[in-house]
């Protein structure tokens, strides 16, 4: 979704520029020199987002050009932060794909190996699904000692979610429970 | 009036340092740690303080200063902004030999990085120890840097009608921006409010210092307690350099050449006479 | 959060207790600043003088782990003051909106009589036999009349009424006791009491802001119970500027909890099925709360609608009346068995868990007693981990000191996309569900977690369809049609819920049914994504989480009812019916949340926020009216709560590892907390110093999302341990020195930050030192350092099993 | 005798002179940009600063080298700059009439360096030392030195720049352009001057040289 940052970033009553420049000279700020005007280099497609750090839920505006982030700063309309951003919020741009430490390949470490190997998604999904099925089927408890249907697996654990989106959390819960996973935990416990 | 100013309110600041980061983000300044190509691990070390990086730098235009103060059993943690104050009587502008540093139309101090010759004279000239030189110490190839009041070319927020990046990002609203006169009024109001709430030492810093700073401070204690100069002045040597040395240089140079020219005329005339 | 971030600005007193908002929730501080501008007071209670303390009007130090003693002392102050100056308090609120007047079983005995225990304890004082560390709660029940309705004494004089029990229990929490236990100077404590109690006056509001400093204790849940009691006595719940606000540490820890990513719940806080639930009905009989009081709405009696709609959402056409709506497709946990975090890692350490999937989670740094958890990871056959950066968990097999060849775990590292590289919603502390958009491309082959989950599930469905397996239908019959790649809007719409016959989106959980005609993935979120014509002006029509309308609420109290969407049913302040008197008039005329409008509609109606239970005020229509706290079965707020494992009212116990004996009773630490590793309990002779852990503004959680960001690393390059000048002098440590901190679990080396902001605690003449460690670091990433969690114990709260990160014992030496 | 020449400066001295004065010219011109803002465009991107530093290195090293190669002569030379007598005072009094009007009546006979040259030589040493000391501080101790010290270093550097600059013009003028100093440049260019010129301009020295022909000065 596009938002016009220019419009709401403008400081109220600040119709500065040529007119005031002229006025400033006239007002006798003798040493004042006009600033050489170059178009903003941090402009582009603007999209609203919510900060991925703490639970304040501050709004930010991501500016991107050709899919690459050129600027991220506070969303001035957002009622939680009104355009503000703490050290982490202000640093959001370093999360972007330009961060050289970001993971960008599927990696696999075989048992006992000393290093990761690069793999394809297809390979990884197939292998992971195989392992899940093997572990699930081997340890699946259909009925407990009292004969009650319990349909659970205690051999697979699933953790995490507080850094995911709601929809991902929901699908994760649906996925894990349909597999019979009961060791289902995440950051909220910690 | 078109003069602009930032009002920094120390009584509201929580030193979250969003300003330190957004300044780098907006102005494209790097951190002082190695790039990934030069290795994975970090050279910056903790020095037993929240204050980092250690000092202002060519790529660090704002740095929050943390001061612990304890009086009559009451602990206080004072936070101050260390950055360019954009003085009206600016030592750096005075010291700059070729007008690279200048007062812009908003009364703040900009500089033209293209014309900077890297002499570094602005550094000792600043009563607040703000400008920094980035360059090669041996070759002397360098450029000075400091807060531009968000008038960095191509990134000039002020001209675009936006507030400086640091002001915008401040979560507790400790930074305000607007016409300088309005900021002075706002600052005075804050000081009055703080005084009425029992902060006897509240004061507004920068209203008249150096003929008026364009970064004003609301302080809860004397400027000295925050590590600010109580009575900042442009150093005598800087005044002497720009106001005395340069003109004297031109005078002496001019007179010398004039004198030698005259001598040549007279002496040559005499020499010719003698030959005859 | 009962209220929301912006509402803090409406407060008259803000108390940060067990949290440091200036450090960890800086955006919150903007609202605190606005409140302060209006003249509100800020109280900061913390072991050390923090960034929040620097802006506080009142600061009081507190030894870590003694919150119940501190707040118990405040409760006593308020109870005494209610007696002395009842006009300064809202007695109608206390009498009518809480269970103060309810009579408790005459057999009930409290800690004042039983040396720190409550009646019904199976063991003796300081019981070590795990099977006896529990309560039989029979004596905690209300006295009921012949219709099974709880008996009340509105004069609050009956010796068995909750109010009198409260007084008896907290009479012992004197200022001297607070000083002897918490180490808080008497004058500072009294100033906190006086300042915060001022919010008890009708029309005034005070808010408690807390975070993990409150919860991460063996009695973490009771800490919050203590806050609740205090806030109820001060009539601060439900009102603007009041409430108890949990400042959530992750962007979506609210949402991830709402969606049931915990062993004991399924989406919507519905209880997890157990082996006793042999049918859907059996389950409903067990979990649906009952109450015979006709004036109690007992909202959760709607349980059958929510669980049936969830089953329909998960199994679609395969969920029919005949198969109990697919009830047995889903797992049932063993009754009484705990599967929470610590139990999970204990099971892994015991070799019972073969595989694990970790989604944006880094237990090798964030888990308690991290060495234990790192070692446990080696027992896995395989580990799948998705994250933005390489984490310590992904690299546990090559951590310092281990030989990779010895570790047989296969590790799959999945590169994930960041928040602004994908689309979806998150829910903040204010319960606001906010929509995010894809703004930029991710790096390389990184994919959404949604994409990964979808891919794995689709593959598993193929496998089970082909090869079969136990309970294979649970997988093959899931209602799983999101496309490939998955469409996040389809998921969001399923969460909201739809009519299974018409396929139309449902607007609000009041419209859910228990006959299978409605499907809803998360009933609390019902109404978030409706038909486009119901919300045509939202940027994504129908998607209320995407709304960006700053229109004010009826009373201009800063609710922003059209900004995003707040669960439940867009209510911004929950329990808001407690913000009005019996006639529906707001207690606080300056900041009304809701107000009864007799001329609205035919029979009158509410103006303002979405009312918490749309019933008329009691004085207007006693028959149709319902008590204001509709989510409790009795309809009123609980000063006395039978649901707690460790006592109906908070009693002070020392942390599991404590430097002193309990000054309040003979029971040292929480009598029902499960002790996993008794041998690892540190004793003060060897480890005399209290330690706690915390975060800094510049880093986040286990650090993978900040330790790889140069701008932040530059601000905070290394972990440090904060300590007092006095302790440093005793140990010969100078600021900036490297020091080792050791507990029974291990040792770490960090930089010493010697500061006057930490002071030794003078506890009735005894001196106890405390140190504080940053816990964000580990051995992976751009900035590395020792993990403070190597030191923390593998023990959790008696109710929630949250680990006791915040109070343990260590020794400190110069490295 | 007209064709007779005497050796005024030996080769090392001449090399020292030319290299050092070359360095000075470079330093002077690259420093001049600070005084004439209109020239500052030449200094953009600091390349004048690089040249200034190369010049400075030569300016510092060459005299040091000379000191190492010929310490005796160097010490004698420095001593000479600081040895002033009554004859020098007389010379200074008589100099204006001489240099303007060619009136040499009052000029006392001079040694190998006349008093004017000695004065220049003296200033060269003093200014050189101040240049080097203040310059080194500005070059290497910029971050270490306190601001107050740096300010005065900048100030002193500028003061000696003016003094040395003005004197340099004088020196250049006298050596090359002044109508009477016909062979001064020759002395430094070839090392030799005519006996006649030597007698006229450095009478005292010429006598000494004539007495012991095998021992030219320095």
- Estimate the global geometry of chain C from the Cα principal axes: globular
Structural class of the secondary structure composition of chain C? alpha/beta
> What is the CATH topology classification name of chain D?
Fumarate Reductase Cytochrome B subunit
**CATH level-4 homologous superfamily of the largest domain in chain C:** Dimethylsulfoxide Reductase, domain 2
End-to-end C-alpha gap of chain C: 43 Å
Supply the CATH class of chain D: Mainly Alpha
Radius of gyration of chain D: 19 Å
Q: Which word captures the global form of chain D?
A: elongated
Could you please say which CATH topology of the largest domain in chain C applies here?
Answer: Dimethylsulfoxide Reductase, domain 2
Low-confidence stretches of chain D: none
Count of runs of 4 or more consecutive helical residues of chain D = 9
Helix fraction of chain C? 10-25%
Strand order of the largest sheet of chain D: 1-2
Low-confidence stretches of chain C: none
**Mean of all residue-level pLDDT scores of chain C:** 96
Task: Give a short overview.
The complex is a heterotetramer of chains A (190), B (276), C (815) and D (218). Chain A is built from five helices and eight strands, in the order H-H-E-E-E-H-E-E-H-E-E-H-E. Chain A is an alpha+beta fold and 190 residues long.
Can you lay out the helices and strands and say which pair or pack?
The complex is a heterotetramer of chains A (about 190), B (about 280), C (about 800) and D (about 220).
Chain B lengths: L3 E6 L8 H10 L35 E9 L2 E9 L8 H5 L5 E3 L5 E3 L10 H4 L6 E4 L6 E4 L19 H5 L5 E5 H17 L6 E3 L9 E5 L16 H40 L1
Parallel strand pairs in B: 1-10
Antiparallel strand pairs in B: 1-8, 2-3, 4-5, 6-7, 9-10
Chain C lengths: L12 E5 L3 H4 L1 H12 L3 E5 L12 E3 L6 H18 L6 H7 L64 H9 L4 H8 L3 H12 L8 E5 L1 H4 L4 H14 L10 E3 L6 H6 L6 E2 L3 E2 L8 H8 L15 H13 L25 H9 L5 E5 L3 H4 L3 H8 L4 E6 L22 E6 L8 E4 L4 E5 L12 H19 L5 H4 L11 H9 L1 E2 L18 E2 L45 E2 L27 E4 L7 E4 L80 E6 L15 H6 L4 E5 H7 L6 E6 L2 E10 L5 E3 L2 E3 L1 E5 L33 E7 L1
Parallel strand pairs in C: 1-2, 1-4, 2-3, 4-5, 8-9, 9-10, 18-24, 19-21
Antiparallel strand pairs in C: 6-7, 11-12, 12-15, 13-14, 16-17, 18-25, 19-24, 20-21, 20-25, 22-23
Helix pairs in contact in C: 3-6, 3-7, 3-9, 13-15
Chain D lengths: L4 E3 L3 H22 L14 H23 L1 H12 L3 H16 L13 H26 L6 H31 L6 H6 L2 E3 H7 L1 H9 L7
Antiparallel strand pairs in D: 1-2
Helix pairs in contact in D: 1-2, 2-3, 3-5, 5-6, 8-9
